[in-house]
Amino acid sequence: YTGKTGSELLTEKIKKFKVHEFLQVPVVVKDSVSVYDAISTMFLEDVGTLFVVDDNSCLTGVLSRKDLLRASIGQQNLSAVPVHIIMTRMPNIAVCRKDDLLIDAAQKLITRQIDGLPVVKEIDAGLEVVGRVTKTTMTKALVELTIGDHV
Ligand code: ADP
């Protein structure tokens, strides 16, 4: 018997979760693509957040569902509007790294009031996008906490 309370054991379990164990495949678009193409990609790839990259595959922006909806209202030709006009851009992007604690990534989602974070890696040209974590990731982690317990 460890003498630890249930809540201490739970905290211990949660703090073992690292971003790299849970990260999902990122869906990226080039900053030269149109709003129309970004909307198509969002449907085809079935994601709620797209990451925008430059020719070096480095992060330049983020596109949410509402960013694309806002850009679409009253706009006739979505094929003529490049996403870099409407995206949220660097350096205002909240990111995380593979070896971060998942709980710290969750805290960023809450404080920034966003649905997802790109998982990035520093390279010479900037920040390479290597994954994503989202609110769905956090739901999976919550379920994972009960695996092995007889609930
Ligand atoms: P939605 O706008 O569809 O509700 P979000 O809550 O994720 O989706 O996005 C809210 C705003 O925050 C959008 O303008 C989006 O571009 C921006 N955003 C989304 N993810 C990030 C991020 N990781 N860092 C900075 N801004 C972000």
From TrEMBL:
Keywords: CBS domain, Repeat. Residues 19-79, 87-150 form the CBS domain. This is Transcriptional regulator. It comes from Oceanobacillus profundus. The chain holds residues 59 to 209 of 209 of the full protein.
